Amino acid sequence: MKFCLFKVGAKKRLGLVLEDLGKVIPLEEASSQLYGRGGKVPRTAFRDIISFCKYGDAAMHMASKIFQAAEENKFKKILYDLNQVKILPPVENPTKIVCAALNFEVYREQLGFERLEVPMVFLKSPTSIIGHMDPIQIPVGYGTIYHEWELACIIGKKCDSVTEDEAENYILGYTILDDITSHDLEIKTFLLQPIGKNMNTFAPLGPFVVTPDQVGDVNNLRMVRRRNGIVESEGNTSQMRFKMNEIVAYVSTFMTLYPGDVLSAGSPPTGPIFPGDIIEAEIENIGVLKNPVVARKVRTDYAKKLGLLKEEE
Questions:
Q1: Residue 150 domain boundaries
Q2: What tens digit of pLDDT does each residue of 246-268 get?
Q3: Looking at CB atoms within 10 Å, which of 49, 172, 180, 245 has the fewest?
Q4: Domain edge (last residue) among 88, 110, 125
């Protein structure tokens, strides 16, 4: 199944995507129509992904029943066109975003960073999350900005010190994360990475969360990056040095993961983006995450102190 968080008017809804029809069905309304108030899972379970995860297998079972009923055309009056709703980030308030760095060996070699024998990870702030078609705001004066595009997973239940074999049982589904990065800050020194990775709007996420059974072989998915409709780079999840279950196991050794937490698995070789661009990250069987790029004026005295701008600029 494919889940998405979407908004019609002022109300947010967790929905199931019916891709063949180009529709999305709100789970809260659908559960009421099927079960009334007699269902084992309350309507509040379908407010967002984190609420959904609290009810575990029972919520997933009900979602499966709703999906089957939708395929039988039982919800015609509550279907929405995907192109007429606002698609939101699938998770808006995770406790953390953990990103794997340099997980594609070719890209690591291009950047010239050290190769370690464990996943290299860093935290990205949840406040940098935006959704499909939301604008990425590039701060003027802070150098080149890169579009790193990554397979990500959403944790479905509390995960603490699990093995690689167990890790897959804790993954609710897969999505796409754009790890937008201030390349010049990061190259100058890793001490500036927290700023370079966590600026406002630097974590586009979505558009959907796809359950593992629908993704297929998560370790063999084609990846495509486009800028202004032109393919600028390609890759495959088979090229990842550490697989997603290995990253989850590693991180859970040191940090307890909670429902809704996001982990990403690193980017293939990538390139810069500029105001006016439209960027797309596509991963096979998951979808296309698309965002416009705009300029954002901020104070530039810090850029001058860092040598990114000359004093006269």
A1: 97-305
A2: 999 999 999 999 999 999 999 99
A3: 245
A4: 88
DSSP assignment of 259-293: TT-EEE----S--EE-TT-EEEEEETTTEEEEEEE
Q: Please report, for residues 44, 46, 155, 186, 284, the alpha-carbon distance to residue 50 in angstroms, rounded to integers and kept in the order given.
A: 11, 9, 9, 32, 25
Q: What is the distance between the terminal CA atoms of the chain, rounded to a whole angstrom? A: 51
Contact 303, 166 (CB under 8 A): no
Is the whole-model pTM more than 0.90?
A: yes
In this structure, is residue 310 part of a structural domain?
no
Rounded distance, CA 107 to CA 118, Å? 17
What confidence tens digit (pLDDT) does each residue in 65-79 have? 999 998 888 887 899
Whether 313 is covered by a domain: the verdict is no
Tell me: do 27 and 135 sit in the same domain: no
Kindly state the tokens that stand for 266. Answer: 């690193």
In a shared domain, residues 172 and 265 = yes
